[in-house]
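Tutorial handout. Part one gives the primary structure; part two gives the three-dimensional structure as tokens.
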Amino acid sequence: MLNEINLDDIKETAVKAGNAIMEIYNRDFQIVYKEDKSPLTEADLRSNEIICFELEKLYPNIPILSEENKEVPYETRKKWSYYWCIDPIDGTKEFIKKNGEFTVNIALIHNGIPVLGVVYAPALNELYSAKKDSGAFKNSQQLPLRVNENPAHSLRVVASKSHLSKETQEFIDTLSIQTRNIEQVSKGSSLKLVMVAEGEADIYPRLAPTMEWDTAAADAIVREAGKMTCQYHSFPYTPLVYNKKDLLNPWFIVK
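Part two.
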């Protein structure tokens, strides 16, 4: 099945959604709030509409799980071998703040593992992509772009811009026991994961809630770049698993 997926088609779909998002981003737009108090804009819905339409047209036999679609019962999902996992806009809060740090996330999951991922940041014109056993890329450059040769001397840690938990900050503070210089930066959306894939950051701890669609696409890129998204409480380290009964991710670290 994976061999039948044209990664360029998925990249084009993400860019198409991103272009529609930017049309709304550059004008006034309304914000509503979902039951869980998270914000929703017309850009989220328009992006979702474009992505679902394109994927259903290109690959009608692959089901879709999206943050903005109706919830799919686990009894149905657990029978899926392959499915698309989508976040039409990851970082809606950053979109509303107009700081550019939001992404379109499209992942293909196979038996709980992300095997293809596209992360597009339309305001930054950055397109990350990966397909299992084919490498990870930022635009046309293969990842990682940088390697930290001396982590005992310095570490660059990226953390959430809008959701920095006390536990995450405490974890970051403990890194100074083993490393002389800690530089902490903040970033929105799945850009934090791809920063590690790229080598722009060394570690991203997330000791706070996320959903599977928040991480799936970027996780595929992280893995193909030779890095790991691992569950915080696991030893030995266990990668994140997808299509669980509960779509909430456990705490994790990308490194």
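Part three, for discussion. The mean pLDDT is 96. The radius of gyration is 17 Å.
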